[in-house]
Design goal:
CATH architecture of the largest domain: Roll
Number of domains: 2
CATH superfamily of the largest domain: SH3 Domains
Helix content: under 10%
Strand order of the largest sheet: 1-14-13-12-20-15
Shape: globular
Order of helices and strands: EEEEEEEEEEEHEEEEEEEEHE
Structural class: mainly beta
Largest sheet: 6 strands, mixed
Number of helices: 2
């Protein structure tokens, strides 16, 4: 990834009582709440898995605090210090079906996931738990069979306006000097402000059966997280279930978006169901930079 000389501010809203006492020991296991941790590999679908996270280092920075009216913003958090795309360490931060370690594990959380915090928090045995919420409807709600909770002590919340959207016609009429060019053949994305290159990065566009559409589009919807599920009629017949897809810039009504991908590292080759996958950190920078109406040109 090559960035222009312009830097991106990395301010993080630290909330009292959530992450102020993260207590990380380098190359050790966080020990303040030992019942949350296990040295055994976790089965993603195991109801008896223990909540776990090997903390290698304290996150040096977090997602950018979005500008705008904070009164109308929502709380989110981005997972850091947990598993990589292929669950490459033995333990991961986990999500449980209820607020407490007695509840079953429903998901292992990988680095880069962004999840919305619901309006309320719950305290159980002196530990605060965030309930996970959703932006918009879920395509297959029957897959969510319980509540989703994460221990607040191990995540860093931040504020974001949440979903912002306008019609495709309004987006096409927006006045901006910014533009995004996607080259499917080269598997590269370029973002410009006027003639100045802001960022370039390898990407993963759609596989042969689910190609990223060619043409001229505009960003018409932004949100920091999406729960992406398949199959999608008319787009993809494959099953997938990906909560917390981060930093989403939608440019077609059918759901094509530019977003971060925490579940693979095959950037530079086709690997998606039609979206444009970016490394998570790069996706965040592009998300903060792009405005509604930013032109998106997808070339062969």
């Amino acid at each position: 990834m090559t960035l222009a000389t312009r830097s991106i501010s990395k301010q993080l809203l630290w909330l009292s009582g959530s992450a102020a006492v993260f207590g990380v020991l380098a190359f050790g296991v966080v020990s303040e709440h030992p019942t949350l941790f296990s040295q055994s590999p976790l089965n993603k679908n195991s109801a008896n898995s223990s909540a776990a996270l090997i903390a290698i280092e304290h996150p040096a920075s977090g997602p950018t605090l979005s500008s705008g009216n904070t009164a109308s913003s929502s709380l989110y958090f981005q997972v850091t210090g947990s598993c990589g795309p292929y669950f490459d360490i033995s333990t991961c931060l986990v999500m449980r079906s209820g607020p407490g370690t007695a509840f079953p594990v429903v998901e292992r959380l990988r680095d880069g996931m962004v999840l919305k915090i619901a309006d309320s928090t719950t305290t159980a045995n002196g530990q605060t738990w965030y309930q996970i919420g959703f932006d918009g409807d879920i395509h297959y709600p029957e897959r969510v069979t319980s509540g989703w909770y994460v221990a607040a002590h191990y995540v860093h919340p931040f504020l974001d306006p949440g979903p912002i959207q306008e019609s495709l016609s309004a987006a096409a009429e927006a006045s901006t000097t910014k533009r995004i060019i996607i080259k499917r053949g080269a598997q590269m994305l370029y973002a410009y402000d006027g003639s100045t290159l802001f960022i370039q990065t390898p990407i993963s566009t759609g596989l042969d059966g689910t190609p990223t559409p060619l043409g001229q589009f505009h960003v018409f919807r932004k949100l920091p997280d999406s729960y992406m599920q398949g199959p999608v009629p008319g787009v993809s017949s494959q099953y997938y279930d990906l909560p917390g897809v981060p930093w989403d810039l939608y440019f077609t009504n059918e759901g094509a978006a530019i977003h971060g991908a925490y579940w693979h590292n095959h950037f530079g080759e086709p690997w998606s169901h039609g979206c444009v996958n970016l490394p998570v950190d790069t996706a965040r920078i592009l998300y903060e930079w792009a405005s509604l109406g930013t032109p998106v040109k997808v070339e062969p």
